[in-house]
Amino acid sequence: MDSRFPWFILLAPLVSAILIQLFTRKSRGVSATISVLSVSFTLIASLFVFFGHDGTSEIPWLDFRPAFYVPIGVTIDELSKLMLLVVTGIGTLVHIYSLVYMKEDESEARFFGNLSLFMFSMLGIVLANNFAMMFIFWELVGVSSYLLIGHWFTRDTAAAAANKAFIANRIGDFGFMLGILMVWTATGTVVFSEMQASLPTLSLTAGFLTLSALLIFCGAIGKSAQFPLHVWLPDAMEGPTPVSALIHAATMVAAGVYMLARVSFLIQLSATALTVIASIGMITAVLAALIATQQDDIKRILAYSTLSQLGYMICAIGLAAPGAAMFHLFTHAFFKALLFLGAGAIIHAMHHEQDIWKMGGLSKKMKWTSLTFAAGYLALIGFPGLSGFFSKDVILLAAWQQSPLIFILALFTALLTAFYMTRLFVVVFLGNTRSPAADHAHDGPLTMTAPLIILAVLSVIAGWSIVAPHALGETFSQAIETIEKSGGRIPVMILATGAFLIGAGASFVLYKGRSQEPVPFAPFRDKLYFDEIYAALIAGTQDLLATLARFIDQWLIDGVLVRGSSGLAWATGFVLRFLQFGNLQGYAFLFGLGVVATIYLLVFR
Amino acid sequence: MLSLIIFIPILAALAIFVGAPARKTAFGAAVAQFVLTLFAFLSYDKTIGKYQFTSVTPIVADWKLNYAVGADGLSLVMLLLTGIVTLAAVWVTPKIEKRENLFYGCLLFISAGAAGAFASTDLFFFYSFHELALIPTFLLIGLWGTGERYTAAWKITIYLGIGSIILLIGLVDLYFAVPEGFRTFSLIDLQSLAANGHIPAAAQSRPYLFLLIGFGVLVSLFPFHSWAPPAYASAPTPVTMLHAGVLKKFGLYGLIRVALPLLPEGAKAWASLLLILLVGNIIYIGLVTIAQKKLDLLLGYSSVMHMGYIFLGIAALNLVGVSGAALLMFAHGLSIAALFAMAGFLREKNPLLLLESFGGVAKSAPWLGFAFGLAAFASIGLPGFANFASELSVFFGAFKPGAGLVASNFQLATVFALWGVVISAVYMLRAFRAIFLGPPAADAVEWADPVKSLRWPIILLLAFLLIAGFAPGAFFAYLQPSIQALLPK
After folding, report:
1. Residue A576 above 70 pLDDT?
2. From residue B324, how far is each of A5, A68, B74 by CA, in Å?
3. Residues 6 or more apart from B426 whose CB is under 8 A from it?
4. Any chain B CB within 8 A of the CB of A22?
């Protein structure tokens, strides 16, 4: 492998984004072609890199050595190789799919330009060899997500969702940056490998390690939409569906998990931090799954499902099992991208209808879509033999071995997952069609179905032992093997299958043949009122403080102190006597006075 | 060369006063000045470092008063900023209805004064050039301003007048802090005197406080900030660009150039006070900015807020922090100039600039939406723009401050500063959304992109932000040796 390949992978989408933004914004076809070519190139180059050697290369970016040094550097190791495949592979499929999906959109060029910007940012996170560079691309990913959520910016909801996503991420990044700063003060470096080498040699207090690990975790809370910052992800569904598949299901939201896996050497130094991380992950998994059971918008159901699955991954990080987290990230990327693209095909066929109760009977109308969707659905709920079954199993095992409480919650989430996904599948694909749009729905063209078929195949086989260990690399595969051998395999498998059967069966019985929600439950439907609570909190703190500060500024500092204080009032009168606006002599006099005073003070004193 | 950069605008202004075509002459002078600053920047020999292009003309030999200019890396970055923003400001100036020649003449005097202050190596001229730039600023606001221009002009005059006097007292105090026989106006000589310990530590505290408050008033350090937002809101667009973008940096430049090297003990003694005030700039003013309902005031307050970050870098008294602050001066100057320039475009059709009166402007003015978005994201510190690279350096510099400072205080201030990054995202994205996104306002005017020729000044500003953002090292290579020489050993 040429050692320049990782740089080409990083730069190709940047070049594409710049070309589109500067030169081809008016030409939709050319823009789309450039973007698709660049992403295909990154996929091919990533394959070369995948089968090549590990290595690192860097160039200085901020160089204040010895005090402070930030390079722009690329690292190729097992972790980044795996992530490169996921990002460029799904990226390529989504780009191709978008050729059809966005064809009618008048801003297609802008869409593909932003998609390329996203690929650049995401690949930067994947390749980064240091914390500061990762933070740079972390922020850029936030912006490309902002731009793509707000693609249809004349919709107020889209503009609001874009803002919400960016600000929630920035709140997380507040902690993230602080964590980076803390680790830097201790180790004197931001480069991962140097950090890893120097941490054991330092005698840092447990409190310091816990605090810095948790602050860094804040970054993941924002980016991977964990409780309590999870609220932005469901709203992010305002973006075009290919964006939801690529960014808000398969790759960007998984960046938090990837980052934690990258610095697991640091996180694992604090048992307290691990416990907190596992708990946050599990809370997110359960809450999101509960909310998902009562949503009616097909994309929102999938969005809450994504939150819930990300919770699993984060929980695995907290269980000190980054291998299990990355395994689930890997399989989830395929089946969740598949589910979103399938949902996109349905939405496209139904003229932007997203309410599952308006669908129904689509298995007869959209053969390929329903077949592939079924594969993704079964993989997600852990149908034995499919990819999700294997990856979820490892996380459940790790929980079984470490914490009964987390295991029970994880099992409960698995049951809920089977429940809400079966509800979705039954309502959308079975029974009779429930709207004229559903009557006329049909499969998309080959450019749309081909990505679905490829992803369906991957969703089925990604967990098999002929695929997973090679993709995950030696270290993670061995770690997973260790977990599997550490006991509890049979009971966990039985319990997991039982949960899957109960959830899916109950849901099938409950929703078969229904044309409306049989058991409405407002708290779950209304997302447990997080949005309302946050709105009240923001109004009660930030907005109140802002109004108060504005008032103080206007009336106290400016009004009373400045105009009212006797000294300034005197000065005002004094100066005003000489100044009339538009009167040049006044200024000239003041200036002259200043000069004379200076000379007097300096020379004659 | 440096004298040319200072006097070309002055000569052009004089020519305009005696009847040369105002806009053309001003534009020509701005182009010449820009090209010269760029040329000086590129021809500076970084391997030698120190002051180059020096020239000394004795004025009053007995008092050791000289007209002396010279530029190190720090001055050159500031001069380049002056050149870029002056050109952009003259470029975007709309048709001036009354006394066009006086308007352009004053504008050029601001630029000349700023350039003179940045290029002077003599304390007397350093101060006087700034005064030279202030007076036309007052005039321009009073005569060509909009809205409550009289109040605004009145307030900025009083404030900056008093600030200048406090600064003058501080400079005089500094002059007399040097033992008799060594006293001089030459910044270069003073610097070597200070390096050799000729300015006693005990005598540094008082003049530093005067300088801090004096410069602080000029830079809208909390709580001496209330002149800035109304002045920027009422001033004609090019004046706001020049003052917020360039002239206001004089105070920060003065702290780095004069206060730090000559009064390092004073800087350490007053570090805690500065930290409290700058957190006021970032958090308190940040909150005030969130509550703003008009774009011009919002930008004015945001500019005040961002001064807090620059103060934080300077307060850190180390190479990383102060260099970061210096680059942030450059970055902030360009981004705020771009934002105010585009606010000027918006003002032409919507004079009140009330945020809620806009909506969906990006639909019919996509270029403006794109460019404003870039500048807005630059100002809230997005990577890729110079603002990010410099803020990052400020944060890292402040987290491990220089010797003799209490690290935990600085770390606490950095925590506040990082929260400020969230605050600025809140107000900037709110404003951007209110103006450019969402459905077009019901009774809105017909928006259109600015004509091609008016896009170039914006592109110029954004291009330099991106260059310094992608390759901050190229600028730090100028700043580092200069700042290293100015820092206490």
Report:
1. no
2. 33, 12, 12
3. A167, A542, B290
4. no
Q: What angle is formed at CA A220 by the lines to CA A392 and CA A205, rounded to 5 degrees?
A: 105
Residues 162-191, chain A, touching B (beta carbon < 8 A): 162-163, 166-167, 170-171, 173-174, 177-178, 181, 184-185
Is the per-residue pLDDT at A605 higher than 50?
Answer: no
* A218 in contact with chain B, both atoms CB, cutoff 8 A: no
Contact B319 A67 (CB under 8 A): yes
Q: What percent of chain A has pLDDT over 70?
A: 91
Q: Say whether B18 sits in a helix, a strand or coil.
A: coil
For residue A550, what is the nearest residue in chain B, using CA coordinates? B288
Query: CA A420, CA A412: separation in Å to the nearest integer?
Result: 12
pLDDT in tens, A77-102: 999 999 999 999 999 999 999 999 99
pLDDT in tens, A249-271: 999 999 999 999 999 999 999 99
Chain B partners within 8 Å of A145 (Cβ): none
From the centroid of its chain, how far is CA B449? Answer: 28
Instruction: For residue A595, list chain B residues with Cβ-Cβ distance below 8 A.
Output: 128, 131
The dihedrals phi and psi of B173, each to the nearest 5 degrees, come to -60, -40
Residue B322 to residue B302: CA distance in whole angstroms: 21
Select from A364, A344, A362, A369 the least CA-distant residue to A354: A344
Calpha distance A189→A308 (Å, rounded): 35
For residue B426, the one-letter residue type is: V
Beta carbons of A155 and B396 less than 8 Å apart:
no
**Cβ contact, residue pair A64, B393, below 8 Å:** yes
Interface of A with B in 132-151 (CB under 8 A): 132, 135-137, 139-140, 143, 150
Name the residue facing B438 among A156, A575, A584 (closest C-beta). A156
Residues 6 or more apart whose CB falls under 8 angstroms from that of A69 comprise A60, A62, A63, A189, A190, A191
How much is the ipTM here? 0.94
For residue A152, give Cα distances in angstroms to A36, A574, B6, B208, B362. Answer: 21, 57, 49, 54, 11
Residue A87, CA distances (Å) to A249, A252, A364, A432, A538 in order: 11, 9, 33, 38, 35
Q: What confidence category does residue A582 fall into, taking pLDDT thresholds of 50, 70 and 90? A: very low
Q: Could you tell me the residue ranges of all domains in chain B?
A: 274-489
Smallest Cβ–Cβ distance between B168 and the set A173, A547, A594 belongs to A594
H helix and E strand count, chain A: 29, 2
CA nearest A266: which of A347, A344, A180, A335?
A180
Q: What is the CA radius of gyration of chain B?
A: 21
Q: What is the DSSP string of B100-129?
A: HHHHHHHHHHHHHHHHHHHHB-BHHHHHHH
Q: What's the one-letter identity of residue B72?
A: D
Contact A10, A91 (CB under 8 A): no
CA distance B293 to chain A (A): 11
The DSSP secondary-structure symbol of B401 reads P
User: From the list A64, A160, A171, which residue is nearest B422 (CB)?
Assistant: A171
A543 to chain B, any CB pair closer than 8 A? The answer is: yes
- Which neighbouring-strand residues pair with A192? none
Residue A431 to residue A416: CA distance in whole angstroms? 22
Helix H or strand E segment including B65:
strand B65-71
CB of B267 closer than 8 Å to CB of B259: yes
Query: Closest partner residue to B168 among A171, A546, A598, by Cβ?
Result: A598
B128 touches chain A (CB under 8 A): yes
B87 to chain A, closest Cα gap in Å? 23
Tokens of A513: 């043949």
Helix (H, G, I), strand (E, B) or coil at A72: strand
